[in-house]
């Protein structure tokens, strides 16, 4: 039985509605009852998605360590946050700015 849900979503039997795939999963086919978890990428850890509703495994990105972020424009992809920025969580797509007048000792502060 097919459900009228688009790629990147799944049919929730409880709410009887189409819901975007949760973070770190995707759905590349329409009319499905569940999403597929991101495959292992890089360090044998599951990939991460930047937002809900991923439509393919290519939307899953490497889970960068804390102190770095995934940069789709960079050749290395996991980029150091730089002085004045930090990231305490792994698998992030941006870094956090230190408070006014503050900086970090390293370029990979957590």
UniProtKB/TrEMBL annotation:
Tyrosine-protein kinase ephrin type A/B receptor-like domain boundaries: 8-60, 67-109
Cellular component annotations (GO), alphabetically ordered: cell surface; extracellular space
Parts of the chain that traverse the membrane: none
Top-level division of the source organism's lineage: Eukaryota
GO biological process, one term: signal transduction
PANTHER family, per database record: EGF-LIKE DOMAIN-CONTAINING PROTEIN, SIGNAL PEPTIDE, CUB AND EGF-LIKE DOMAIN-CONTAINING
Protein name as annotated: (California timema) hypothetical protein
UniProt source species: Timema californicum
